[in-house]
Amino acid sequence: MTSEQVASRTAEAGTAGNGASEEGYERGLGSRQVQMIAIGGAIGVGLFMGAGANIAKAGPSIILMYALAGVIIFFIMRALGELLLYRPVSGSFAEYAREFLGPFFGYVTGWTYWLMWVVTGMAELTAAAIYIHFWFPAIPQWVSALVFLVVLFGVNLISVKLFGEVEFWFSMVKVTAIIGMIVIGLGVLTLGFSQVGDTASVSNLWSHHGIFPNGIGSSLMTLQGVMFAYLAVELVGVTAGESENPEKTLPKAINTLPWRIIVFYVGALTVILSVVKWTEFSEGESPFVHAFSEIGIPLAAGIVNFVVLTAALSSCNSGMYSTGRMLRDLAANQEAPQVFGKLNARKTPAVGIALSVTLMGIGVVLNYVVPEKAFAYVTSVATAAGIWTWMMILVSHILYRRAVKAGRLSASSFPAPGGAAFSWVALLFLVFVTGLIAYDSEARVSLYVGAGWAVVLGIGWLVLRSRGTLPGPGGQADRPLVDSTK
Q1: How far from each other are the two terminal CA atoms of the chain, in whole angstroms?
Q2: What is the structure's pLDDT at 237?
């Protein structure tokens, strides 16, 4: 993409109205839907299920780990927000990597983000089928997974408005559940009712071997799992090309992120660990199900199981939406087969979604026959892919700020606080988390998969070059649009 094309796209992005966007999409996501998509992206299976293993490893200090990671996520999202208001496009971070680092990085980022959602979809569909067994144990797991896959596929094909509406209600269930859990927990702490009324106390946060019962090192090792819980917060960036009023809705969605982290992660875990001491939790169970079982609320396990099911379906729904848009962006830049660039009559990238859904379906079969540990492996791969995406956002933001300072690009209407300095802090933090993944023998498999994925992408890039799909050595596509050396 030449600098003239970038300028043209920027101008078009700024003048797009409430009808079709400059990329051909329907701007069908209203403020209500974008806000709830942003909220829902901060609440997933990583919190409802994954927190149990993290609590067992870190004790009460897990609250500090979620808060620390939350600060970094806010830095990342404000960096993304500044880029989105500079040029709101559906390709989002892949487009920014392409513009500021060169086409190869855009190609890698787009395909890697696509991989992240495909493998996440595999895991979430399998999880959803397992949750259905809670009520209907006689239904084969593959049947439930197939039904969910077909229904969500239909939702994503019909229109972006229907996707937004379904995601709105999925997110509403999760938000309502978390708030309800916090209110009930506060009632137990202040009024003393329930079966744990005598032992529920804020002192549980430090009375059982301290805040760091297993040492600071054990607490830091949970950061990789904590970061998985925050995957999908960047999804709001993918909605940029289909938001009715991105200049208004995107900043609002991003600026409310700190409150979402405080309430849904820090707040919820603080209440749960005050009501029930941390030594009662273990890996393999939802801390919320366990806590409400201890409280003695009737049907608690069934209610929370429904919420976790909703979280899994919400994540899979978002994955289908995101993968189709990423494949279309890659096709538009000659980095994927051109058939993925086509929109159907309802302005959705149907072919790209269909491919992604097909691969998610293969994942359902694999997860059915592979041991349970495969779920952990899949989530670790998703985390590694997510970290790459976040890194590309931060590097793109740093180079964008450099270009603005040099007068080569116009300033965004939504500047990130701390500028490039905070992006550097977040980038170093992600490098540190990557080191933790390498140190962990179980999570390390994601880096092996990442190395294999890098080889596949490298071969794919060489094939594209050999076919003449991309400009040859020394062409415009070989150079980033922003000179990072200045």
Answers
A1: 21
A2: 67
Burial of 442 (0-12, 13-18, 19+ CB in 10 A): exposed
CB atoms within 10 A of CB 430: 18
20: helix, strand or coil? strand
Judging by beta carbons within 10 Å of its beta carbon (0-12, 13-18, 19+), is residue 369 exposed, middle or buried? exposed
DSSP element (H, E) containing 439: helix 419-439
Helices (H) and strands (E) in the chain, counts: 21, 0
> How many angstroms separate the CA atoms of 223 and 433, rounded?
7
Contact between 382 and 119 under an 8 Å Cβ cutoff? The reply is yes
CB 91, CB 6: distance < 8 Å: no
Structure tokens at 288: 């919320």
Q: CB–CB of 176/157 below 8 Å? A: no
Q: How many CA atoms lie within 13 A of 195 on its CB side?
A: 10
Give the span between the Cα atoms of 54 and 229, in whole angstroms: 11
List all residues 6 or more positions away from 176 whose beta carbon is below 8 Å from its beta carbon. Answer: none
As a whole number of angstroms, the distance between CA 181 and CA 274 comes to: 13
Say if residues 164 and 253 touch (Cβ distance below 8 Å): no
Spans in the chain with pLDDT lower than 70 = 1-42, 44-46, 49-50, 90-91, 159-160, 194-195, 197, 237-244, 284, 298, 363, 366-377, 469-486
Residue 473: HSE in the Cβ half-sphere, 13 Å Cα cutoff: 2
State the pTM of this model: 0.83
CA angle, corner 234, sides to 232 and 236, nearest 5?
100
